Amino acid sequence: MTRLASIALLALLLAGCASRGPASIAGGECRIFEAPKYEVRGARDYDQDWIDSQVEGGVGGCHWNRPARRPAAIEASPAPRVAPAKPARRGIIRRIRDRVLPTRSTPPAAAAPIEVPPAPVIAPAPDPAPPRPPRSALERLLQPRDDD
């Protein structure tokens, strides 16, 4: 009876090891992600680290093949930069107004503030200590002081 109970207990403990691996409701996480066909490059170091961790996770966990080298078409030089647009021409009224009216003069700059040294802080004199209460003859005998 003890053997049968221990075998049943051992079977229950090892039943979890007989599964096919981790799976989600959809039948496995590996079905959700698509393996990259070629190497993916990130724009910044952080992007590249994240991409590398995702690819390595897929290679290790989902048994993906490693991505192939990037095609030459992707490695081609980037498109030339577009020249900035020419500023728009001012309207006719603004052009006439700018010629007829004088230009606005800028007001003179304000004078720099004068630094005043801080006033010295005068602390009030401390109050004199109150006189000590008189001591009995017994206190003077047990705890002598210089002022006794």
Automatic annotation (TrEMBL):
Keywords for this protein: Signal
Composition skew (Pro residues), residue ranges: 115-134
Region of interest: Disordered: 93-148
Domain of life: Bacteria
Entry-linked PROSITE patterns: PROKAR_LIPOPROTEIN
Keyword Signal: yes
Signal peptide start-end: 1-20
Name of the molecule in the record: Uncharacterized protein
The organism's taxonomic lineage, starting at the top: Bacteria, Pseudomonadati, Pseudomonadota, Alphaproteobacteria, Hyphomicrobiales
